[in-house]
Each structure stands twice: as C-alpha cells, then as structure tokens.
Amino acid sequence: MAATIETLLEEISGVDDPIEELQCLKTALLSIPVSALRDAVSGQRFHVIFSLLNSNQREQVELCVAILERILVALSPVSLVQNYRVELQGGLTHPNDTVKILALTQIGRIVENPDALTEILNNPDILQAVIHCIGEEKIAVAKQAIQSLSKMSHSKPGLDKLFQSDVQKVMKDVMATSDIVRYRIYELVVEISSVSPISLGYCANSSFISQLLGELTGDDILIRATAIEMVTSLAHSQHGRQYLAQQGIMDKISNMIRGAETDPFSSLYLPGLVKFFGNLAIMDSPQQVCETYPAFQNKVFEMALDPDPVMIGVALDTLGLLGSTVEGKQVLQKTGEKFKAVLSRMSQLASSGATELRVRSLDAISQILTLQPEQQTEDLLALTESWFHLLSKHPMDMICNISTQPFPELHCGALGIFTAIATQPWGQKLMISTPSFMEFVLDRSTGQTKEAKDAKFELVGALVCSSTTAEILGSQHYIRLKTYLREGPYYVSAVASVSTEGAE
After folding, report:
1. Long-range contacts of 378-381, Cβ-Cβ distance < 8 Å, separation of 24 or more
2. Rounded CA gap, 333 and 337, in Å?
3. Is this prediction's pTM over 0.70?
4. Which residue, 50, 53, 113, 256, could crosslink 87 as a Cys pair with Cβ 3.0–4.6 Å?
5. Is the pLDDT of residue 35 over 50?
6. Residue 63 in contact with residue 19, Cβ under 8 Å?
7. What is the radius of gyration, based on Cα positions, of the chain?
C-alpha cells in the first residue's frame, strides 16, 4: 500500500489538474485501517499536497484538507513538527477556514507533546499566528485556536511562554479588535485559569482577569451579562471560587442582585447572576450559599412567580439544582410557605402553558422529589411525600394526564417524575393504588420515540432496583418488571398473523 501511495504522489506531482489523482489518493488512504496508516505513510513526503492548498479551486483545497487530515493524524507530534512546521504555519494564514482549522488542530496535538512543544516555543511567529486566529470571523477557527493555546498552558514551559510580555502584547492587540474578540480572549484566560492554582496565578498576575472582573459592573448591559457567564465558568474550579471570594466578587454579585430591582435593564443580566449562585451552591454548599447570600434565594423565589418566561425558566432550573441535593431540600423546606407557593406555581406551569416551561418545570419537580436509597431517612421521605401532594389534589392523575399528551418531551418529563418517586415506598404505594398505573408502566405501546422508550426503561429499572418493590407492588408485577428490564428498552414482541382465505 505504501508503494501505491508513493505512485499516486508522483502522479499528482506530474499533472496540472490533479483532482482525479487526489480523489484516488484520498480513497486509498481511507481504505487503510488507522492502525496501519502510520506504517503506510512513514517515509513519504507530502509537501506536494500542502503546495496544492495554494489554489483558488475549492474542490482541490477540500480534497487536500481531507487527505492531510487522514495523513497527519497518523504521524507522531514530533515527526509532524519536524517535517511540516513551515507548512502548518502557512496554514494559519490561509484564506480558506478549513485549512486554518486543520493547521490549528495539528498544532493542538504538537503542544501536548513536551518534545514537540519545544519547536513551537522556539518559533514565536507560529504562536503569534495562532493568537491572531482568535480574531478570525469564523467562530470554529477561533474556538480551535483557543483550544490549542489552552492545551499549551498545561505544561510549565507553555505557560511561561504564553505569559511572556511580547506574547501578552499580541493577545492585547488582538483583544482590541472588537467586543466579541475580547471575550474570546477572556474565554481562553478562564480556561487556562481553571487548569490549576498555578495557572490561575499566572492569569491573575496579568491584567486579563482584573479587566474581566471590572466589566461585571460596566455601563454596557450586554457586556455585563457576558462577563457574568465568564466569571461563572471561572467559579467551576475550587481554586477559582477561592480567588473570586478573595476578590469580593460573591459580595459584589449579591449586591448586583439587590440593585437589580431598580434597574430597568436588569432582565438582561439578572438570569446570569442567579445562575452564578446556583452553580456555586451545588459545587460548595446550598445552605452556606443561601444563608450567606439571602438575596440569591429570595430572588429565585421571586423569579419563579414572575410573568417573564426567561425569569421563570432560570428559576426552575436553579430550584431543580438546589433541590437535587439533600442539603438543598432542607434549605427549601426551611423557607416554609414561600417554597410551598413556588411549588404550587411549578405545578401550574407543568400542567399548562408553553411547552418549554412545562418541560423545565417537570424536570425541576423530578429533581426536587428524587431521593437516593441511601438518603431515604424517615424525615426526608415524609418531606418528599408532602411536596408531591402539594402539586395537586390528585397528583398521580395530574402527572398521568401530562404523560398521555401528544408531546414526547412532556411524556418523558412526566415519566421522570414517576422515576423520582419509584424508589420511595410512599411512591410505590401510590402507584399500586392508582387504577391501571402498572399496566401503563408495562405497556410498551405508550411512547414510541427512542427518548420515550429510554425514559420508560429508566422508570422500570428504578422500580426493579428498589428493595421494597416486590413487597409493595406484589410478586406478579415485580416478575413482569424484571422481564421488561431483561428484554431491554426497545423489545418488540412477535405477533403471529394468520390469514384466512375468503375473510373480509
């Protein structure tokens, strides 16, 4: 096969219009298993393919990119940078975006290898060209550039290089292109900061993070909203959260939530502020966050009762997050009547209104009601049961009605609530006392989409795995549930068909 590739390369070199030959080479390369590709291409010189990228013919460029994608992945990072460094550098400024993405992807492989990385560190022009790609119009090019530079920061030499003054100057120059590009640089800095406390230290010592934090309270509302998203990403790591706390950012965001009441444009950034604390609560402690920043919890309840669908949606997602943990459930319980009013509102939203809000409400309710077997104390079981009965006078009928409506996402959302209560003895007692409910669970004809079948299978699995199912539902139902589980989510029973001659 190596001889075939060599022959095809020679043919490509000797013709003016190599489309047909390039197609043959592409086919030949695709016919070789990836495991055998390295041996097939080793020793071959593919500079001719790179040279053919310099063409105005789109088909030719696309064929060359497809060939190079196949070849270069088979080469080791060291071999790649030693043989094709100049060509990859040229690809970074190529007018065709697919060529830029090809070059950036391969550079991303190179910077992950300590030996190959040295070649990049010793060639500042390549690094500058990668940084300039962050300013490209096509988002896919910018994303690939960010990814490659982020990988580079995973090593000490790469991190040192990225924060040298000359490289920092290039980043700041690119940053000045536009608001959009500035936030791409912030995205890179946040990604680097998330790697380790050391990498965060590098970013903090540069001016980028302080500049980002300053934009939280800037005059431009849309920029403020984007800044909040970036800061939320920074808070995903523990060292990131510690840094933000030291900088007083949590207090600042809490004050922004309070001040939002008098800002007519707060609807543009308030959801981001609430998401920030919602993520913080889940990663650290719901109780600590809600007690330290009461403005957050109050605002979530307020948003749940708001007529604005955007506010309601964020509130539902946040309540679901909080209620998914035992500590969060206890925090919600402590608010007494406030949460009961919110739960009643969630029930109304689940039953009627826009489909998207109905689905988000069903998802939030299922998270709030979920209790893992090891969490099922008498008090917590009593709590989830009381919440379920607050949904409606007849909550089982209400959820069953939603599950039969002709919207797959609502059907799956309703099944999600049944799955949440399926492992809890009180939930199983409601199921067995609800007429025809077990027949509904075991009926494979309800819900024909893959998602619906998966959701039903999850419900059946939850019932089978519960230690109280056999006793509460009875052995006959338990055996049928186990059979359903064994047969899998997509089982179709064979039905014999007999035709009778002369039948109408």
Report:
1. 380/326, 380/329, 381/424, 381/425, 381/426
2. 9
3. yes
4. 50
5. yes
6. yes
7. 29
